Amino acid sequence: MFVPIKPYLSTSAELSSYQHTKYHKQTKNQWARDDPAFVVICILLLAVSTLAYCAAYDHSVGHAVFVVISVLLLHFLIAGAVLATCCWFLTNTYLREEAPNSHVVEQRVELLYAFDVHCNSFFPMFAVLYVIHYFLSPLLVAHGFFPVLLSNLLCMMAASYYHYLNFLGYDVLPFLERTTFFLYPIGIVIILSPILILSGFNPSRYFMNMYFS
Fold it and tell me: Which UniProt keywords apply (predicted)?
């Protein structure tokens, strides 16, 4: 039974977000935002943080431009579109409550709303993996067990919080059921993290070498 999970996972900020989402549905007749400002803000912040990495670790303007474009496209837009589409398909196909009678208007998750949920979930992950990680990167890319441990813990925290916020985004929709499905990836992340730590895999070194080696 997963019923008791909701009271413990809710905070005042998230409840406020719930109310705003429901209010938006009542006034605009859609769950998704009609203002792309938050997406633009995410893109700008991601571009600035990537430029900071390039200024610290890159030595070519051309390559820096390539890195910025790659991060914006792959890390945010393409990955977000794929994840949002998967969640959109799963919710509409498997998680919608069956209408009690034919007179009830059928509700579906909008694809744009699924991308909104991704953006909301991405922002805290951005703060951890792009901002905090930047200031800790000299330590994280060093050799030794502690950098491996810290790097994996940062990734575990960021990924877990992403999936938690993703769950909240769909849990607020009254016509969905079994939304705790979106919490399951957190368990996978928690299981994989000790394995990666014990194997000596350092995600910070891996991605820094991939972009700046």
Answer: Membrane, Transmembrane, Transmembrane helix
